[in-house]
Amino acid sequence: MPEHVEVRLTDDVRLHVETSGPADADVTAVLLHGWTLDGRSWHRQLAELRERFGDRVRVVTYDARGHGRSGCMALRTATLAQLGDDLAAVLDAVAPAGPVVLVGHSMGGMTIMEYAHRHPGHFAARTAGLVFVSTTAEGHTHTVYGLSPRIARLIRLAETTGAGVLARCGAWRPPRALLRALRPSIRWMLFGDRCDPTDIRLVTSAVARATLRSIGGFRASIGAQHRLDTLAALAHLPAAALVGDRDRLTPPPCAESIAAALPATELTVCPGAGHMLMMERPEQVNAALAGVLGRVLAGAPEASAPR
């Protein structure tokens, strides 16, 4: 059973963290969820990691500020920069020693990039491998929702305007009845050809736990972030990037630009899959994660200072 830990940050926000495996494991894998989701997003990876690696790998998941069972925060801290700082704090609190492999989905992947950008020494001393799942280093540059560019611009305008309104709603959470009514839209936006009913229920449950401040507040920095230069300094690390060819939020060009910045990265494009690859294509995600962990455990060069 996972151990539940509460990490209190310098601004008094409390993060809900779950750890599994011995503290002295050879490697710690830290799995970071996407925007409006929570640590449960990785449920199809946790058992696989335990079965494949046993006590050699410790696994850490946590709910980002304003998400899941973590505390709400001041609106000014609803930024990717703050999430990068939070990741550094979580590592210091629950995995203060030993190599780590960072695994990020969507906003979680952007959090890893921000951590590398804001804490290069800390990142270099700790990070031994990277896995990017359905994420981007270029904000909303490639996000057209699978529609024409003109319609995409209109949707983005409506989305950003609505996000500004939601951000001012504080710690309130979306009404569950409304989310149930929006399930068809959520399914269209996040999933590809196939969707297990339990997955859409889990995603809806996660969105219902996210505060309106986090749903609206993080939108601006997610759309504006550009970290390809930061990634280019990490080319020495074992890495993998995965994307679905039906992903409407971070389409294949997002993963392709990450792979171009990290030439040794193994790029996997999953046919028919959408944005929720951990649920839609767990075999491919698990294989990519196992590949990076295997290289680290086999003695791949440890992290050194970024170029």
Automatic annotation (TrEMBL):
* InterPro entries per the UniProt record, alphabetical: AB_hydrolase_1 (IPR000073), AB_hydrolase_fold (IPR029058), AB_hydrolase_sf (IPR050266), Epox_hydrolase-like (IPR000639)
Which Gene3D superfamilies does the protein's record reference?
Answer: alpha/beta hydrolase
The UniProt entry's GO CC annotations, sorted and at most eight, read: membrane
- Domain AB hydrolase-1: from-to ranges: 30-288
Q: Which SUPFAM superfamilies match?
A: alpha/beta-Hydrolases
Tell me where on the tree of life, at the top rank, the source sits.
Bacteria
Q: Name one GO molecular function term.
A: hydrolase activity
> What is the protein's given name?
Alpha/beta hydrolase
Question: What are the UniProt keywords, alphabetically?
Answer: Hydrolase
Is GTP-binding a UniProt keyword of this protein?
no
